[in-house]
Amino acid sequence: MANTILHKADSRGHANHGWLNSFHSFSFANYYDPERMHFGALRVLNDDTVDAAMGFGKHPHENMEIVSIPLEGDLEHKDSMGNTTIIKNGDIQVMSAGTGIYHSEYNKNKDEKVKFLQIWLIPNRLDVKPRYDQISLNPADRHNKLQQILSPNPDDAGVWVYQDAWFHLGKFDKDVRTEYAIKKSCNGVYAFVLNGDFTIDGTALSTRDGLAIWDTDNIKLTAHSENAEILLMEVPMEV
């Protein structure tokens, strides 16, 4: 029997800095909950909205895999490796902070907000050479199925990270069912609903709800609304 923990959207930590409205699925900055420090290797899942022409100034990271998934708008990234890029909905960005990097993130637009998920994974290798990558995904590849967007393997679909983790996005019509098979034994899955309503293994979820699932080989999903969208993050439970 699988173990599950449901995190309702309104149970997340919340910080409104005026220019930044951020919801934290796990302890972050001034939000601390000893019961929600991480889910295996998944350390941070922040749901951020940044006002027009605002953003995060230059700041450091080390020994963390940092994944950004834009949901709306255009986010400008600059880093100490010399990268200056724009990421937008349909893109996925990854940084291996390794021995240390600095970067900044700004809303490129003067007239609209930018929304994105910032995700941190605890790596399985420390002090690697920092690296940066981003790709553009084809949204059609996730219509009524799960599209792989991240894995441990550079030759696989999506970006890659220094961790035995796999991420998938899916966008479903109402009443469509699918299954997800765990890629590596002893891994768990954190499911995060981006939009709409789902049932996962009998648990009802709505927009921005999260469900942690472990001690299982596969999970069953059913969409209960049109354009229901979900992110599945498979990660090692032992870190």
From TrEMBL:
Record protein name field: Pirin family protein
Keyword Iron included in the entry's annotation: yes
Segments forming a coiled coil: none
Record-listed Fe cation binding positions: 59, 61, 103, 105
Domain Quercetin 2,3-dioxygenase C-terminal cupin positions: 149-235
Cofactor: Fe cation
InterPro entries assigned to the protein according to its UniProt record, in alphabetical order: Pirin, Pirin_N_dom, Quercetinase_C, RmlC-like_jellyroll, RmlC_Cupin_sf
PANTHER family the record matches: QUERCETIN 2,3-DIOXYGENASE
Organism per entry: Arachidicoccus soli
Keyword Metal-binding attached: yes
